Amino acid sequence: MADLYRKALEAERKSLWATCRLKGLAKDTPERQRIAELDALLREHEAKQKGGKG
């Protein structure tokens, strides 16, 4: 089954990362901070998925 939540997070992260690369944004910008938040959410989601299957 497709994991739509994960796909949505990854799509948002990819879009933000492209914007940051094009604009050359520094690490302390809201966009880069959101990328860090998305990374944390993806890790938490992956841990929940692995925990539920075990």
Automatic annotation (TrEMBL):
What species does this protein belong to?
A: Sphingobium nicotianae
What is the name attached to this protein's record? Answer: Uncharacterized protein
